[in-house]
Amino acid sequence: MEANIGKKLVLGVASLAAVLGLSVAVGNVNANAATLPADTSTTANDTTGSVSGESNAHVQVRTGYLTLQEVPDLNFGEAANTSTPQTNIPLHDNQTGLGKPQLVVTDGRAVKDQPNGAGYNVTAALSNFSDGKNTQGNGWGIQLKQGSGLNNDNNVPVNTPLLTAGANNASQVLSVQPGQGLGTTSVDYSKSTDASLNMPANVNPADYNAPITWTLNAAGPQNPTA
Asked: What total number of domains does the chain contain?
């Protein structure tokens, strides 16, 4: 019965193609004739053959630019409201803002007489904390504690300043001398010991945020050569 249905189906397709003036290749109605997916061994139950596929890897290399690629977000989690100021509240994680854990600078400048980099510095300034309605006053600060960074598999010195909330001046975090820093330099702030928060007494319960402005300043010759 099933064979007759298959024959009728094939004949029906052929008849329709003839009416429309089309040519059609008619094969057997057989589940075993299904098309194999790409990159599948064509021998049934093969235990020795192999197949391969091809993907793509991409990178865009540029020269002549000094770039601030990433800045860290610092989340200090929960803190208790106390009658005395608190210091050294440890970093909880980086899950705030964009959730980035690192300060990353890439120096691709080709400066005459400085083949290994023209030098640069990075500063940070902490604005006042606010809950969206009220801005907090004195007593807030962030102590940066990460003292080293990585550049081309070598450690580079990093400053550990206290960022005072609302201060008019920025603090220097990273200072790379001319003749150093070519390529990518990264400073990681992901561990609880990499930063801490100072908080004044009697802070009203709320969620507080404060922007940190990281500024990359080019140092030495700034005109890349061709």
From this structure: 2
- Residue type present at position 100: K
Do residues 80 and 24 share a domain? no
- Alpha-carbon gap, residue 200 to 83, rounded angstroms: 9
Do 74 and 128 lie in one domain? The reply is: yes
Q: What is the pLDDT of residues 59-88, one digit of tens each?
A: 776 677 899 999 999 999 999 989 999 999
pTM: 0.71
Query: How far is residue 219's CA from residue 64's CA, in Å, rounded to a whole number?
Result: 14
Buried b / exposed e along 83-93 (16+ C-beta atoms within 10 A): eeebeebebbe
Pair 134, 86 in one domain: yes
Q: Give the Cα separation of 170 and 155 in Å (integer).
A: 24
> Are 88 and 159 contained in the same domain?
yes
